[in-house]
Predict the 3D structure of the following.
Amino acid sequence: MREQLRRLWRQIFWAWTPNSDREASEAIVKNLWLHWFPAKIARASMDWNYSFWLGTASASLLLILTVTGVMLMFFYVPSTERAYGSIKDLEYAVSFGRILRNQHRWSAEGMVAVVFIHMARVFFTGAYRGSRSINWLVGIALLLGTLLLSFTGYLLPWDQLAFWAITVGTSIAKEAPVVGASVQYILLGGHEIGQQTLLRFYVLHVFFLPIFVWILFGYHMWRVRKDGGLAALEPMRIARMMRPKETPRTKSYSFFGITPGTSVAVMSSTGLEEEDQVFSSPNLTRRLTLVFLAVFNVTLAAALMFNAPLEGPANPSVTPNPAKAPWYFVWLQELVASTTIRIGPISVSGGFIGGILVPGFLLLLITFWPWFDRSPLKAEGVWFPPERRRQNYTFIGAMVVIVALIFVGVYLRGPYWRIYWPGQARPEMPRLY
Amino acid sequence: MAEPRESYEAKDFGWMVAMSIVLLVLVGISYWREFDTEWGKYQDEFPTVLSHFGRGDDVKAFRPGIRQIWIPKIGVTDRCITCHLGYEWSSVLPASIAEPLTPHSMNPWLAKHEFAKFGCTPCHGGDGWATTVVGGHEGGKGWEDPMLSNKLAAENGLTRGEMMQMRCNFCHRHDVATPGMDEINIAKALFKKKKCIMCHVVEGNGGVTGPELTYEGDKNPELVDFAHVTGPKTFFNWNVQHLKAAETVTPGSQMPDFNMPPDQARAMTLLLLSWRRLSYPPEYIPDPTVAAAAMAAIATPSASPSPTPAAAAH
Amino acid sequence: MEDDRKARPANPDPERRKVLRMLGKGSVLAAFLAQIGAAGRAFFPNVLYEPPSRFKLKRPSDYPEGYTFDSAKRLFIVRKADSFHTISAICTHLGCTVQWKAVEFDCPCHGSRFRPDGTVIGGPAPRPLSWWQTAVSPDGFIEIDTSTEVAIGTELIAKTGKA
């Protein structure tokens, strides 16, 4: 009875144990969904404390966002007249609609955070060297794709928040030298935010950007394997190379029968010893399911606890006071609001400096960082190695500044973008009656 | 030295079972949320009320669910009736039934403002899309048009009926006077008497000493200065104070101090705030001559001994 | 294998083939790029469903003294006796609508402040608020062109008789 129950649980939760090694590897290799994983995975990669499974969490969020997003597409109307009403319908009239929208919203914000922390993890462990630098670039493109998805999704409810965040966002694009005005024109589909803008952002949000992110995600995964798995394995490989060579004793078949001696030693794809590895099925597959379940639970719990914001319908003639960007863009808003430079009669807009120059510089810096990193090889795949201390402190410094700016923007800024300290009374905004 | 293979299995397996149970619980909660609605409780109650008043057949016909009055040409999607189920039952249910099942009072003007033609929010305000008490009455964050409740009216020194006349005048702005709109009628008479039009443009006519007032009700409350206003920080209150003593509220204002008593100032404010942009089709805009005739009928009681204002009005 | 290869007719003119191959590849590439260009061009609308940049407002005599905000057009008509000018309400920083506060313009988005003539007092705004070209149309209305900026201080003198 007990054994039967145990088997039932295992069946339900797909926690089956293959009966043989062959079955275990075939479960991966012959499966459409799993064949892009290696048949065996290093124990070091299974460690919770190296990768924190942030990439898997990001991918889980992407999957959740795609499914909830496709669901939302059935209810959302990308028209300036009906968009706001269709969001209200989701909130109040569609069965489970509010949870659906909430989960999409919180997953989106979660994905921005998790993708960024994933990048930070890769940076702190120096896991972007050699052939992995290509995947670092792909990762940066994925981060940008995530941010663009958030930005385009932000306009769709067509409420005050959306309308003015997009006004500010596209005005930043306008500050780009030479092409700025054209970029704004093509984004808005005109000179002002209108039906064309909504439709463009909608198609970008539900088609082009998801396709872009999914394809890059596939490539990202494929490269992880081609680059030899997680960088956590590099110290093991180095250790293995250092170890005195003990040539494996094998039998060779020759025309004269069995010859003692050595033949070509076949390295396994991960280049690791047998005892350092476990079969991907069920170890990796179960772990992936577990991470997905955990992420799904977190987003669903958030969706049940907090409602996605929705303000009054878009009103082009009244700017909300203050008009704040979502938290992950607030640091940029802080920058654009405080980086205008005036020297005599010449002034350079903060929209250009804080909106384009500073983030552009940060982006270029982070993009080409792998080629600036001159730390020794043994610093790869290890958390906070002493050889990379300065680099990591630089990165942490930049992160602290960004988080501080986000904090200021989200919690301290009040009407007319003035600073109000905690406890300090904010002016009451006038109501109609 | 390396972890035994079994260790992943045991730990991950345990966590997976835990996560799966959490998932089931969360999905359970989402179902509970879906079926445990605010409006569901009222809809459970309503059939009991109906049968109590001998409408057993109607109980059989009663189908629970979200209800809405949808009038696309005036942009109305009003789900208020999902909870306010008794709204059209005034012939059967007594007015003493507690909200939200209370029938709509059979006031005289209801005859010409059918539910099916106007819905709820054009007269009452609020967020018609919402199906929750707070969401529908107050609207969410940034919702500028809350329902005109007794409480809200009292905060502005008025009764709800008086406050609602502001909304009547969205459409009735061209009536000289309208039966049942006493506050607005007083204000319209005052507007004429005080010769406001000497200094303010309204719909293309008037002097240019002061700002145009045609769409005063649409004005962003942030645009006026509250530095010299006492009391609540509302555009309503600003107008009341400004009408009492313009110089004090807006230093340097050329507007004379009308020294309006509070009730007149409030009536004037209702009129000013009623001037909003409206995109109703022509059949919704009342003919001022009808209201004029109705007012005349009330003024000469001999012509119609017991006039019901609205019956005469249209 | 060898036989198969021999069975194929020998390339009579390798040079010619090379040129033709180049021509073929080049044509496809050029056509592809041109198609991308065509697709890209389609995204720049040739007609716009938005109000024209040149439009008429009311007659000069219809404006009171001081600052009159037109919320639909996002601009201020400023009248002083018979002289008029039009100041844009669009903040030069990132496009929010500024508010006239009796002695200055304030922007709710990032706290830019402007003097009554639109020049910057403080905040992130890089430029003064635009002064739009303002004229009186032949039929006597104030006509504004928001595609043409004029120098600060450019006034339109319109005799209205009453002021």
Summary: The longest strand of chain A covers residues 250-254.
